[in-house]
Amino acid sequence: MKIGEPGGTLDGDELQCALDDGSDAPRRLSLAAGLTVRLARPLRVPNGWWLGGVAHAKPRLVIGGDRAGGIVADGALALEHLIVQGGFPAGRPCRDRDCVAHGVVARRGRLALLGVDVRGFSGDGVRIADGGAFEARRCTFRDCGLRGVRVARAAAVLEDCVAEGNRHGIQLHLATATLRRVSGSGNCRHGIVAVHCVDGVQLLRCFASDNGRSGIVLGGSPASTPGNRDWLLDECVSVGNAQLGFAIDPTVRGDAAAIPQHGRVRRCAAIANGLHGFNVTHADEVVLEASIAIGNARDGFAVANSTRIELHNCDAFRNGERGVAFYGEADRVATSRLGGGELRLNAKALHVSSGRLAASRLGRVDR
Hints:
Elements: E1 2-3, E2 9-11, H1 12-21, E3 28-31, E4 36-39, E5 43-46, E6 49-52, E7 60-63, E8 71-74, E9 77-80, E10 83-85, E11 104-107, E12 110-114, E13 117-119, E14 126-129, E15 133-137, E16 140-142, E17 147-152, E18 155-159, E19 162-164, E20 168-173, E21 176-180, E22 183-185, E23 192-195, E24 201-204, E25 207-209, E26 216-219, E27 232-234, E28 237-239, E29 246-249, E30 259-266, E31 269-271, E32 278-281, E33 283-289, E34 292-294, E35 301-304, E36 307-312, E37 315-317, E38 324-327, E39 333-335, E40 351-352, E41 356-360, E42 363-366
Parallel strand pairs: 1-3, 2-4, 3-6, 4-7, 5-8, 6-9, 7-10, 8-11, 9-12, 10-13, 11-14, 12-15, 13-16, 14-17, 15-18, 16-19, 17-20, 18-21, 19-22, 20-23, 21-24, 22-25, 23-26, 24-27, 25-28, 26-29, 27-30, 28-31, 29-32, 30-33, 31-34, 32-35, 33-36, 34-37, 35-38, 36-39, 38-40, 39-41
Antiparallel strand pairs: 41-42
């Protein structure tokens, strides 16, 4: 079924009626090229609909005002080649007094997005929760007051997506997720965040840059809740963030003993960040291998109050203070090549504080 005229305008109530009346399968509704649908209230989509347009002239679903929500999925929903646009001003963070409105909301059903742009909502651009499933490919999420994407207690796969200009780019909470070639850049706080993801998170060839705090964060709070486990960062790059390139801190509040992570950082790069390149705090069982830290303002690799942290074949160049530094109770840290070969330190001495560096080619160093 098709609706609207190319380049025309459609009242949101007409689109809502078409969705409510379309009881027969297949539930497919094509919007005309360049069509603008003006919604005075959130669009509620019944279970099982496909709603889409064309890539070269995406239809626009425009929600009036900065406090109105966009699309609410009552079950499975697929969206393709659409623009979902709210009225929240770009560059303005969401305040407590704001009425939070989200762009696309789905619970318990499967939400699939292809070539969809979501922008300008006071809350989250896309919000998935309560056992749902989320797939997004070649989508952008920008200029939202809270997060570009929030996935909570659900499964997610994101590929070739961009989150920029939000308070946080992408946040995963108690989720199982795989992100491939996902970018979180220019957000007010963090680019990509995963907290309490006990069933595994994979970030593959992801990119974070120019965020107001840290680029990629694996964290959590408080310590009584489970931390991230069985996670992997592979070929990710974090550049020019105001604080940390990669932040691995399962407590966030920093008031607990090390929490098991079973995590691996592989072939990643932290470049020109405002504090440390790689920061590992209150973590247990984390391996960093074949990764590089260049030109960060403080340490290339900083490890604090952590146990069973391993560095293998890593490089650190031209960092402001130290190439590799261990603070607090960091101990049982092993590196296969230290001081020559694969791991090259700054001219300043390696700093070890109340920890132990073991199994290096230069012999054992204890403090």
